[in-house]
Amino acid sequence: MRRLASLVYATEPLLYSLHDPIRRGNYYCLPLQDYAAIGYPRRAGAMELKGHEVAYGHGEYMEGNLLCSSYTGRDRRHGEEPLSAREQHKDPSFVEAFLATRESGHFEPFTTRGKSSRSVNLLPDVSNEVNPHVSTAQVSSLQPPLEPARQRNIPRLRMPKLSKEDHLKMQDMTIRTGSRIPMSMVNNLLERGPAPSVFESVGRVYSQPATCQISRLLSSEERPGVHIMGHDCYWSDSIPSRRTIEFRFGEGSVDAEWITTWAKICVGVFRFALNASVSQFIDVLTKCDRAMKEDGSYDVVDLLDDIGLFAEAEIAERRLIANRYRWKLSFDEPEHELLFASALS
Question: What is the pTM of this model?
Answer without folding.
Answer: 0.77
